[in-house]
Amino acid sequence: MLTLARSELVQILRNRAVLITSLLMPLAVGAFFVYSRDTFAELYGLGYIAAVVVFTIGAFSLYSTIVTTLAARRQTLFLKRLRSTAASDREILSGLVLPVTVIAVVQVALILGVFAAVSQAPADVLVLALAVVATFAMMLALGVATAGVTGSPEKAQVTTLPIALGTIGVASWVGIAGTESLTWLKRALPGGSATELVVGTWDGGLAVTESLRLLLPTVGWVVVAVWLAARFFRWEPRR
Amino acid sequence: MSDTPVIDVAELNVRYGDFHAVKDLSFQVEPGELYALLGTNGAGKTSALEVVEGHRTASSGTVRVFGRRPTDRRAVRPRTGIMLQESGFSDDLSVAESVRLVGRLSGRADDVDRLLKVVDLSHKTDTRVSQLSGGEKRRLDFATAVYGRPELIFLDEPTTGLDIQSRDALWDAVQQLREDGSTVVLTTHYLEEAQQRADRIGLMHRGVLRQQGTVSELTRALPASIQFSLPPGATTPPMHSAPVSGSTYVIETFTMQADLKKLLDWADVHAVELLGLSAAPTRLDDVFRAVGSEPSTS
Fold first, then answer.
1. pTM of the model
2. Helix axes B164-179, B134-145, angle to 10 degrees
């Protein structure tokens, strides 16, 4: 798996388009929110900024990059080539998504670390980390599922929009409006409860039991996304 | 060397919905053998091979490679090299990186520099795959297939797009591997390559293995031909023959030597000059055409 992950990292670093659109752009967006923190904090609170950073990186650095990468690797029959080796499907998939996942984790840690240093530290780092892990697991599995219905890397620009914009939209809605009204709907939407959790763990005031309860809908989405990935992912192009 | 077949296929069926692509296919490949699986377009050989390679599951039937299910990658793939019909390399990796990646994932060990020398890509070691020509990509593909000298090698259209020198070099490398004990399964549209290289040939048409055997076994069932033209006014030769166009005659024969002697004796006695006389043995092309013209059995 590590051999493949290393090779995948080399490919990402050599592909300027992937580097700019999927890795540098989200980093820039995150930096913008941190830079403009006073404006946003005044309107919606610091936790909102943390949530937007998590979901921007989750949607673009992780989700969109995974869809684009897997669609490209399948289109060029690179996946079939890998499957002609002794590596198992699980090892291949893990090796392919590992570098993208690590980069996304480093990005979010970097931006939130700087954000905490220049504003205030999160109230509950451990639960915040759990929320990020659950969110990224959901986006990763949704990425594999979406790659299954994405015929080419070009088509990924369209097929990723509903989930990428949808989750950022949900994060913004929940982050700005809170969950006082339409509570169940907001928490049931993908990313809704995770946003509430990130906001709560950053700003403080969430009890541990409440935190764990908020984690459940995201874990549910992870299960659904893994099922969708197993159902829709294809290793070879349609003939 | 073991007498157990390297590949054992029994009553293999592959269906895509209502389409029956492979019908009750059975064949074995013995250790050290070069077996060519040939077929008309849409004959089902790619579907059959993909099952044998472990890329696809069978609808029914049994397939064993080294006595194991071909989908058991951990057991089978370290002993198997697969040259795919299409490239399947990442444009952003170099030639050496591509060979090293696929080689390592295959669970075998080899010297990349040695291998690139064999396929004449030493001067392209650090070149990105995107900058290779079609022929160079085929040679790269071959290099990954034979990485670590596997016991079983699948060659799917190995010489398509290669110039004559590269073809010769590739077949020399295959011959070397065979001398070291490797078993080879070949599919190709170049029938003369199969005729020259294969120990046994399986001919598929419309999902069915219509004929199987050595080249001489396959060609034995069809007649050889003697062709010539007669000058104006010459009498018709004694054996059964008919003009195929104007004064050009073709004699189809299973006893080439005897019939040729008879024809030459007749021409000598009657002082007839046989214009453009040629005698051709039955070729694999003829068998292939005959199989291709057979109606479907289902």
1. 0.86
2. 0
